[in-house]
């Protein structure tokens, strides 16, 4: 996810992309291309435009993915959804594979987030997840995903606490200026030629584990284990996680030395951290502290509950995979131990009793008894707990939490004539994130609710044929980010899931 205050960086990055594309030979900047509709248009009520870039300008081509588009759209009756799905499902492959080196034993893939020429750990994992079911039948697609696993390992080994990275120097792509380098005070220090943003977010760790284990489960291949960076990166992350469970104060009342700090001169509260960059004090709970949320906004209480839940699930999957493939048994044990401690911490310290909704998962906690009641549209979110695999959808505490998150009792839930759902402090008041609408559908077993989510998503495209970061509750033409690949991937995943569960729904 990007931060909207980094507008200077955004403009720089867009300009850099445009310059590179032009040098490659007349391919339009996709930031510009995605901001205006292109024909032909669908024959439905919304006249959905065709938003795929010209074939010669697509960044990765896959006959398998074209066949999936054919198969899925031919099972639909809604002409608008046929066109919309054909735009969004391949969007990551069409537009974001900035660099892919498949020349050696270990492939590498640098995947940009969309309108910023940098790779977010979380976004890049989610951008590729919808293609994994087809990777076993398509070696080139599998190597693209393996390349991302290897790339993320190299990035996190280089700087364990980054959320977004620059293209590797050997790609020949220029690093992007993010405009915030001058006023930062970050511990440990980082190199801005390799790190695009140094915000420490624990869901980056979980996303790094997730892409590896999901790739292995889909293909049976675990070649990343023998690439140079993966085992060292996992080792370094597990020992950092252990340190990040530590309380702020030692048992005899001294200040513990923090592992990470982030502070910055800014007029935006969510762009820096409390306590000169350490974050607010915490007690030991088993949970792991984080300085920033998946929105790249600062946490208020450092134990971000949905991110800890996600980390517990993915550490468990990591441990199980390592045991099954017979690699690094000590790492497998440590991953499973940490998973159990974090899970216990979430269940003991990550819930509270709400006057109207009963026992709910809270968004953030500190181990002293304080907690923050809200949900944010960015994943991992409380709404996504069953999607992540932390609880079954029928779990009572989850169902209470879901009711709260989807009601005015969530301070970041908005409703209007155009769209209703969860938004984020990241984009401000009265804006709903289509991604949260897709997550509501993915975690619902009601055909009516799923259909309602699909309808809102269809109208949220505002005639531009792609999903946006946030849209105004009264008017989807007031939106942020014309080119946001993660959202396109997640909504496409929801469409495939909805059609499998409710044939004929669109
Ligand atoms: C598309 O559908 C055909 C016919 O059902 C099937 O044989 C093929 O495997 C499908 N292709 C993909 C990529 O799902
Ligand atoms: C890195 O930071 C320096 C200042 O410390 C700045 O001059 C330079 O432009 C930055 N480079 C990038 C790629 O952001």
From TrEMBL:
<dbReference type="GO" id="GO:0005975">
    <property type="term" value="P:carbohydrate metabolic process"/>
</dbReference>
<dbReference type="InterPro" id="IPR008928">
    <property type="entry name" value="6-hairpin_glycosidase_sf"/>
</dbReference>
<dbReference type="Pfam" id="PF06824">
    <property type="entry name" value="Glyco_hydro_125"/>
</dbReference>
<protein>
    <recommendedName>
        <fullName>Glycoside hydrolase family 125 protein</fullName>
    </recommendedName>
</protein>
<dbReference type="InterPro" id="IPR008313">
    <property type="entry name" value="GH125"/>
</dbReference>
<feature type="signal peptide">
    <location>
        <begin position="1"/>
        <end position="18"/>
    </location>
</feature>
<dbReference type="GO" id="GO:0003824">
    <property type="term" value="F:catalytic activity"/>
</dbReference>
<keyword id="KW-0732">Signal</keyword>
<dbReference type="InterPro" id="IPR012341">
    <property type="entry name" value="6hp_glycosidase-like_sf"/>
</dbReference>
């Amino acid at each position: 996810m990007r931060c909207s205050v980094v507008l200077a960086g955004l403009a720089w990055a867009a300009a850099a992309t445009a310059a590179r594309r032009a040098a490659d030979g007349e391919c339009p900047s996709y930031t510009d291309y995605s901001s205006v509709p292109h024909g032909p248009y669908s024959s439905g009520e919304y006249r959905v435009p065709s938003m795929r870039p010209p074939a010669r300008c697509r960044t990765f081509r896959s006959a398998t993915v074209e066949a999936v588009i054919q198969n899925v759209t031919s099972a639909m009756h809604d002409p608008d959804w046929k066109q919309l799905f054909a735009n969004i499902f391949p969007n990551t492959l069409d537009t974001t594979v900035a660099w892919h080196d498949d020349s050696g034993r270990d492939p590498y893939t640098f995947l940009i987030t969309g309108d910023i020429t940098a790779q977010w750990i979380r976004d890049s994992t989610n951008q590729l997840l919808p293609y994994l079911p087809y990777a076993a039948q398509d070696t080139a697609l599998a190597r693209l995903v393996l390349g991302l696993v290897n790339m993320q390992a190299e990035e996190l080994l280089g700087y364990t606490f980054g959320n977004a990275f620059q293209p590797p120097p050997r790609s020949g792509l220029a690093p992007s200026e993010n405009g915030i380098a001058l006023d930062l005070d970050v511990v440990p220090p980082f190199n801005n030629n390799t790190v695009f943003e140094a915000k420490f977010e624990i869901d980056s760790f979980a996303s790094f584990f997730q892409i590896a284990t999901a790739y292995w489960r889909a293909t049976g291949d675990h070649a990343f284990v023998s690439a140079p960076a993966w085992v060292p990166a996992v080792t370094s992350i597990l020992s950092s996680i252990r340190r990040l469970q530590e309380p702020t104060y030692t048992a005899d009342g001294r200040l513990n030395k923090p592992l990470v700090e982030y502070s910055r001169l800014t007029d935006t509260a969510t762009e820096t951290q409390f306590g000169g960059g350490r974050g607010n004090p915490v007690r030991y709970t088993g949970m792991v502290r984080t300085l920033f949320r998946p929105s790249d906004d600062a946490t208020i209480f450092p134990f971000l509950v949905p991110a800890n839940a996600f980390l517990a699930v993915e550490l468990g999957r990591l441990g199980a995979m390592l045991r099954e493939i017979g690699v690094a048994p000590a790492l497998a044990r440590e991953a499973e131990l940490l998973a159990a401690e974090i899970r216990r911490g979430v269940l003991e310290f990550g819930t509270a009793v709400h006057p109207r909704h009963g026992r709910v998962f809270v968004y953030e906690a500190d181990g002293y008894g304080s907690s923050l009641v809200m949900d944010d549209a960015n994943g991992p979110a409380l709404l996504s707990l069953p999607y992540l695999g932390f609880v079954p959808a029928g779990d009572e505490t989850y169902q209470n939490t879901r009711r709260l998150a989807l009601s005015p009792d969530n301070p970041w839930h908005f409703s209007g004539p155009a769209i209703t759902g969860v938004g984020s402090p990241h984009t401000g008041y009265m804006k709903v994130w289509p991604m949260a609408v897709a997550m509501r559908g993915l975690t619902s077993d009601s055909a009516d609710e799923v259909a309602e989510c699909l309808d809102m998503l269809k109208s949220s495209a505002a005639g531009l044929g792609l999903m946006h970061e946030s849209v105004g509750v009264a008017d989807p033409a007031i939106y942020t980010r014309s080119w946001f690949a993660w959202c396109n991937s997640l909504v496409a995943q929801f469409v495939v899931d909805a059609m499998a569960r409710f044939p004929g729904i669109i």
